[in-house]
Specification:
The protein contains 13 helices and two strands, in the order ααααααββααααααα. It has about 350 residues and is mostly helical.
Length: about 350
């Protein structure tokens, strides 16, 4: 009986060491790669949306604000997680001021870029509406106010983290009791369920608006005759913004789904007695549910580059004019030559 018990403990200790090693390896190399990709992507996305082509476009303003705030997400939230899990630096669980500050800024830098994307989805719904009064809500002035208000709102809301987070039994965590139950449920809704629902609802409403616009403009004409006006009053830029946002929402929903599932599980087992192996597994799973969240942020630039021709053109033009020091006239001339070459090739064939 004693030998059996010893073997069970040995097996559990072995599994715990394997899980810890896997958690450490993924945190070091996986999060490190995401941080590298994310920083480059955030800088490039901000540069592209800062170009004159996107000036005063409310959707571009939300994308710019989201990408700018993601820079802090990568260099604080992700970096501190990588240090904690990847390099086993336990300052989070030993310093109370760092515990409170890190937890506060962690939630802050995750919420701000996420809700800027939600504002962009709401803006696309208003911009695609047939109602002129609703379209007025899609404006650069409103976008600027919401971007600033978004920052202040989350800065105030998450003050509760500074108050109620503490180090108990060697772990930086929110206080147990009634508040612990409230916060575990709240963060499950705020970080997972609510953003996902808002993005899906306004994304579907925007698709419905676009579909209604296509049906309303000359419904009796043949497809080949309506090809040039199939998007009605929407400009090419607006259509591409719809596509960029739709892909961003799909990316968000898919990569963010594991985290709220874990948070719901954690809130439901908050007061359960857990073995060391179970605590290790839950710590690993919890850390892994944040990896796809950071991955989704890091893929923002790639998503925009794939989804939008205008975005790609502005990026290429920036590289040619600012990095390679070519003039705008020479870039335009090269484009004309390339188009003529393609046309002549088609004629010869």
């Amino acid at each position: 009986m004693n030998d059996t018990t010893v073997n069970i403990y040995d097996n559990q200790a072995y599994l715990i060491s394997i899980i810890d090693l896997l958690n450490k390896t993924i945190s070091q190399f996986g999060l490190g790669l995401i941080m590298f990709m994310g920083n480059i992507g955030s800088v490039l996305t901000c540069i592209v949306f800062y170009q004159p082509t996107f000036h005063k476009n409310p959707c571009a303003m939300y994308f710019l604000a989201s990408s700018f705030s993601q820079f802090f997400t990568f260099n604080f939230s992700l970096l501190t997680r990588m240090i904690h899990y990847g390099y086993n630096i336990q300052t989070l669980n030993t310093s109370l001021w760092y515990c409170k500050t890190r937890s506060y800024l962690f939630y802050l830098f995750i919420a701000i870029p996420r809700y800027n994307i939600i504002f962009a989805s709401i803006d696309r719904y208003f911009a695609s509406s047939r109602d002129a009064l609703r379209r007025q809500w899609s404006s650069s002035k409103i976008a600027f106010r919401l971007i600033i208000g978004n920052i202040f709102f989350w800065c105030i809301l998450y003050i509760q983290v500074i108050i109620f987070y503490d180090i108990t039994t060697g772990t930086c965590y929110y206080q147990s009791g009634a508040y612990g139950m409230f916060f575990s449920i709240y963060i499950s809704i705020d970080s997972g369920i609510l953003p996902t629902c808002l993005m899906l609802v306004f994304g579907l409403l925007t698709l419905n608006n676009v579909h209604q616009t296509r049906k309303r403009i000359n419904p009796g004409l043949q497809p080949d005759r309506t090809r040039s006006i199939r998007f009605g009053k929407m400009s090419k830029k607006d259509v591409q913004f719809h596509r960029m946002l739709a892909n961003q929402i799909c990316l968000f929903v898919i990569l963010n789904l594991p985290n709220p599932c874990y948070l719901i599980y954690r809130s439901s087992t908050l007061y359960a007695v857990k073995s060391p192996l179970r605590r290790t597994v839950e710590s690993f799973v919890g850390n892994m549910t944040y990896v796809p969240i950071y991955l989704g942020f890091s893929l923002t630039f790639a998503n925009f580059a794939i989804s939008s021709q205008i975005f790609r053109q502005e990026f290429i033009q920036f590289i040619q004019t600012k990095i390679l020091r070519r003039t705008v006239a020479s870039v335009t001339r090269d484009r004309i030559i390339a188009v003529r070459a393609l046309r002549s090739k088609d004629e010869n064939e």
